[in-house]
């Protein structure tokens, strides 16, 4: 049985409202309006992966392979996880957990998940157990290079300070950012991710940090980095993409040395990004936006969603390494509509 102190779910609402209100202008190229009656909808490679009615708002998806996938979500009352074993999807509700936001792991019997109210869980292949996070603040992202080298980020976007801690398999060590490390006064970090020798954390007000020589160093993201960054992914140390934006899309690319941020006109905020090994980059955002990003193209974003499929915000993307990409999303607000999609 988990024993977790939880902050009121209302602490999540400012973040959720930020996502809801960041839609692009009507008629923009980013989220096209539904076709008029009689006109066929454009074909989409996306389809429903699982019924998310019992899962609530879905915000994260990760797996160790095509036959072991975890989608995280929930509502005010509980956290919930939908697991795929290669044949069926099944629902699990870890005892006492708050709404679950993100997961990351190293195999079917070694998975970590985080969520609201300081929820920090570990799955050993049999059940989910609580880890003392040393905080009851909301946790938004988790990543690790190994099961004794786990990083977690979070914080209330409206109050307090960003949460950033390391878990060595036994205990957590929190980092309090200095004014030099957080010059924009961000109150939350949303995701953390790394590859090779690189580790980055992204958050509110365009804050991006790099872990270098045992310390966190603020990154120069350029003048367009004036809104939140929500997620990041890459296929090499010199090819990483971060996405975000509230009033409009923000996309930052890392070339191994520096970041360049763009604000493509006419697109709503982006929340999700996943990159294949060959560099193909999928992005998701508000109002059901699903598409691809090509930083070398004249029009870098290509829309491939379907309003008949979903209009809820897409929060996470993940590929199984064998050609399928999963996308999940939800409202974060009652009645907690969720969606689980797959791209073949």
Question: If you had to describe this structure to a student in words, what would you say it looks like?
Answer:
This protein is mostly beta strands. It has one domain: YVTN repeat-like/Quinoprotein amine dehydrogenase (Methylamine Dehydrogenase, Chain H), CATH 2.130.10. The strands form seven sheets. Strands 1-28-27-26 form a four-stranded antiparallel sheet, with no helix packed on it. The protein has a four-stranded antiparallel sheet with strand order 2-3-4-5, with no helix packed on it. A hairpin with a 7-residue loop joins strand 27 and strand 28. It is globular. The chain starts with 12 loop residues before the first helix and ends with a strand.
Helix-strand layout with pairing:
Blueprint: H1 13-20, E1 46-50, E2 57-65, E3 68-74, E4 79-84, E5 89-92, E6 100-107, E7 110-115, E8 120-123, E9 128-130, E10 139-146, E11 149-154, E12 163-167, E13 172-174, E14 189-195, E15 198-203, E16 208-212, E17 215-218, E18 229-236, E19 239-244, E20 250-254, E21 259-262, E22 270-275, E23 281-285, E24 290-293, E25 301-303, E26 314-319, E27 325-330, E28 338-343
Keywords:
single chain; globular; 344 residues; mainly beta; four-stranded antiparallel β-sheet
Largest sheet, strands/sense/barrel: 4 strands, antiparallel
Count of DSSP E strands?
A: 28
Neighbour order of strands in the largest sheet: 1-28-27-26
Number of domains: 1
What CATH architecture do you see?
Answer: 7 Propeller
What is the number of helices?
Answer: 1
Classify the beta-strand content into a percent band.
Answer: over 45%
Topology order in helix (H) and strand (E) letters: HEEEEEEEEEEEEEEEEEEEEEEEEEEEE
**Structural class estimated from helices and strands:** mainly beta
- Percent range of helical residues: under 10%
Q: Mind telling me the CATH superfamily name?
A: YVTN repeat-like/Quinoprotein amine dehydrogenase
Oligomer: single chain
């Amino acid at each position: 049985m988990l024993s977790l102190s939880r902050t009121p779910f209302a602490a999540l609402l400012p973040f959720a409202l930020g996502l809801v209100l960041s839609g692009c202008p009507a008629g923009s190229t980013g989220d096209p309006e539904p076709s008029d009656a009689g006109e066929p909808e454009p074909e989409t490679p996306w389809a429903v992966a699982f019924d998310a009615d019992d899962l609530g708002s879905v915000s994260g998806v990760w797996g160790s392979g095509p036959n072991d996938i975890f989608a995280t979500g929930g509502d005010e009352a509980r956290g919930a996880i939908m697991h795929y074993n290669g044949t069926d999807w099944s629902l699990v509700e870890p005892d006492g957990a708050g709404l679950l936001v993100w997961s990351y792991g190293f195999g079917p019997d070694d998975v970590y998940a985080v969520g609201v109210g300081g929820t920090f869980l570990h799955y050993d292949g049999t059940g989910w157990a609580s880890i003392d996070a040393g905080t009851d603040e909301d946790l938004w992202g988790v990543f690790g290079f190994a099961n004794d080298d786990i990083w977690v980020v979070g914080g209330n976007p409206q109050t307090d300070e960003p949460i950033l801690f390391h878990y060595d398999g036994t205990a957590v060590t929190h980092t309090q950012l200095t004014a030099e490390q957080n010059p924009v006064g961000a109150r939350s970090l949303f995701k953390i991710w790394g590859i090779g020798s690189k580790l980055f954390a992204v958050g509110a007000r365009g804050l991006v940090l790099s872990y270098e020589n045992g310390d966190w160093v603020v990154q120069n993201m350029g003048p367009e980095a004036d809104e939140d960054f929500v997620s990041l992914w890459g296929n090499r140390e010199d090819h990483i993409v971060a996405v975000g934006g509230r009033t409009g899309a923000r996309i930052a690319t890392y070339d191994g040395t520096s970041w360049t941020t763009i604000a493509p006109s006419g697109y709503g905020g982006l929340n999700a990004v996943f990159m294949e090994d060959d560099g193909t980059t999928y992005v998701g955002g508000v109002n059901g936006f699903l598409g691809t990003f090509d930083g070398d193209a004249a029009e870098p974003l290509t829309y491939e969603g379907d309003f008949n499929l979903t209009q809820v915000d897409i929060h996470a993307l993940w590929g199984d390494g064998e050609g399928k990409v999963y996308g999940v999303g939800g409202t974060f607000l009652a009645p907690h509509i969720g969606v689980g999609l797959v791209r073949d």
